[in-house]
Amino acid sequence: MKAIKNIRIEDYSYNLPQERIAKYPEKQRDNSKLLIYDKGHISETSFKNIPGLLSENELIIFNNTKVIQARLEFYKDTGAKIEIFCLEPHIPADYSLVFEAKKKCTWKCLVGNLKKWKTGKIFHEINFNGNKITVNAEKSEKQTDNSILINFSWNTGKISFGEILEKAGNTPIPPYLNRKSEEIDKKSYQTVYSEYKGSVAAPTAGLHFTENIINEIQKKGCSTDFVTLHVGAGTFRPVKSKIISDHSMHTEHFTVSLETIRNLKKHAGKIIAVGTTSVRTLESIYHLGNKFFNKDFKPEISQWECYENPTKISFETALNEIEKYIDKQENKILEAKTKIMIAPGYKFRVVNKIITNFHQPQSTLLLLISAFVGNENWRKIYDYALKNNFRFLSYGDSSILKI
Fold first, then answer.
1. Beta strands in 143-199 (DSSP E)
2. Residue 351 and residue 354: Cα distance in Å, rounded?
3. I need a labelling partner for 95 at 20 to 30 A (CA). Which of 34, 199, 289, 390 fits?
4. What pLDDT digit, counting tens, does each position of 273-292 carry?
C-alpha cells in the first residue's frame, strides 16, 4: 500500500506534441485507428474491424451517460461576460429531478472571470417558443475544491432547467482542444447509445461505436449491457502533486441495475469495459460488495479503501452481496459514488479487457492503464502509437487491451 501511495507521477509522463492531439473527430466514427495489445504483442487495424477481435459469450459494458450542455454564458448589467460551468446538481441533488426543476435549482459550478463578479445577480436571456425568458444566477457558498454553489432562477414555470441547458448551454469539450465548442460537437461529443443526462465530459472510448458495429458485435454472440457513471470535470484535472498520495480524486456518481449485476455474474472472466469510466464503475461494484459483506452499507468507495480493506471475497460473492442490497431498494437499482484510485499495484477483480483512447501524460487515467497492462507495457503501447501516427485524447484513436 505504501509503495502505491508513493508512486511518482513524473514516471508516467511522455512527450505529446500538440499536433498529435485530435481537435476534431473522424467524419465517420468507426474510421478511427485501433491499436491491439494482446498479451505483449502490439498490432493495429481499423476500429470498424473490432467485432472480429471479440469472442463469443463476452460481455461488453458501455457507459450510457449523456453529456449535458454544461457551459453557460451570463452577463452583468455592465455587459461583462461571466462563464458558468455546471458540474453537478446540489438542490435537488438527484440528476433526474434537477433537469425537471421549474423556476429554480442550485448547482456546484466553476466560474470563469470570477474577479469581475463580486456580488449580485447576473443574467442570461433566451427566446423559448417565442417567449423571452430571463435566467438569473447568484453566488452562494464556496466549496473546498474551488467550485461555487450557484442558485439559478428563471421567470417562468413553463421551462425546465434541462431545457434551459439545451437551449442556452454549450458543449463542454475538453480544454486541451484549445478551441471553442461548435455545433458539430453537440452530436460528435455524444455516444450513439447515450441515454441519461449528467456528464460534463464524454466517455470518449464509446465515441467510436456506431449502431452498425454494436449490431455486428451482438450477431457474433457477444452480449452488451450498460452502467451509468456521470463523468465529472475532474477527469481533465492533471496530477500536480509529486506523489499520488497527495492527489485528491474527484467523486463520480453511478447507477447499475439488478439485471446488469446478474449479467456480470453470468459472464465472469469475459467482461470487456468500454472506457475508463466503465472500468472505474465495474471495479467499484466489486469493492462495494466487499464492504456490504463486512456489514458496511454506505454505497460509496473512497480513494484508497480498495487497498486498505483486509477482506477480499470472490467476484461471485461480491456480486451476490450487491444483489441482496439492490433487492432491498425500492427502485431495484444500485446508486453509489466512487473516488477509486486505480494505480499500478491494483488487482483487477472484474475487468478482463479494456477498450480505451490514449490519455494525457501524468493523468490518473494513464495510471489506470499502467495498472492494467504493466509499467513497461504502457510505454511500449504509447511509443507505438506515437510512431505510427495515432491521434490522441478525446477525439483521437482507440485501443483494445488484453492481458
1. 148-154, 196-199
2. 7
3. 289
4. 999 999 999 999 999 999 99
CA dist list (Å): 89 to 104, 122, 149, 199, 232: 12, 19, 9, 11, 12
Q: Nearest Cα to 303, choosing from 366, 247, 344? A: 247
> pTM above 0.85?
yes
Rounded to the nearest 5 percent, the helix, strand and coil shares of the chain are 35, 30, 35
Predicted confidence at residue 213, as pLDDT, reads: 98
Q: In the CATH hierarchy, which fold is given to the domain comprising 2-66+187-402?
A: QueA-like (3.40.1780)
Q: Which residues contact 384 (CB under 8 A, 6 or more apart)?
A: 35, 42
Average pLDDT taken over every residue of the chain: 95
Average pLDDT over residues 22-38: 97
**Hey, where are the domains in the chain?**
2-66+187-402, 70-169
Enter the C-alpha cell of residue 276.
Answer: 475508463
CA angle 231, 85, 188 (to 5 degrees): 55
What's the pLDDT at 234?
81
pLDDT at residue 1, rounded to an integer = 72
